[in-house]
């Protein structure tokens, strides 16, 4: 089973690509998180967990989901992590998670996709995004073939800087930066509620026709990048920046 979390579509792309290649079942955890479900999942085939990298480690929301779910059947677990640059020492934490819940860690696949974290960086334009996605396809094909054969994914070389990024820097990122306080809706907001539906953590509600953010945010960028009128800003950090959604016609 391929289990994924995605905010702007990069990890959804990777998951759907692998689902087609491996002819395997697909589960969107965002919908289950939104419904507040604690899942019991069964797969006779290896588990393939697909998620974005947040500060050089797999997104906490998927790691938490995996811990909370009851997983039966196969004990083998692969991790496919999408990133704007590189994954640091993310593999170590995925391996620790497997040890914690009794799975056999089979490695991590680094898949570089278009940058989407517009509260800190610039997202590429459509042409550049498509070029980056095109380069990701053979990486996914090669990783998918190893998964199909039951082989381990190649190990990554990890240096001291990688350990710092995925360790204390990641922890500081979540503690000091991952907050919803700076999100706001401009006068371009129509009150359509797309952001409310897009938020996997039910962190957004409409008040007097405008979105209001609560405290349970993971910075997945689903709201700001999915707004049909580009009415959501993250303080001044996002002003003038292009929004990003993985091109839907690139998925399969």
From TrEMBL:
Domain of life, source organism: Bacteria
InterPro entries given for it? Answer: 4Fe4S_Fe-S-bd, 4Fe4S_Fe_S_CS, EFR1-like, Flavoprotein-like_sf, PSI_iron-sulfur_center
Q: Which GO terms describe its molecular function?
A: 4 iron, 4 sulfur cluster binding; metal ion binding
Give the source species.
Pusillibacter faecalis
Q: Cross-referenced Pfam families, in alphabetical order? A: Fer4_9 (PF13187)
Keywords attached to this entry? 4Fe-4S, Iron, Iron-sulfur, Metal-binding, Plasmid
Q: What is this protein called?
A: Ferredoxin
Summary of the function given for this chain in its UniProt record: Ferredoxins are iron-sulfur proteins that transfer electrons in a wide variety of metabolic reactions.
| Cofactor(s) this protein requires | [4Fe-4S] cluster
Is the keyword Metal-binding in the record?
A: yes
By its UniProt entry, which PANTHER family does this protein fall under? PHOTOSYSTEM I IRON-SULFUR CENTER (PTHR24960:SF79), PHOTOSYSTEM I IRON-SULFUR CENTER-RELATED (PTHR24960)
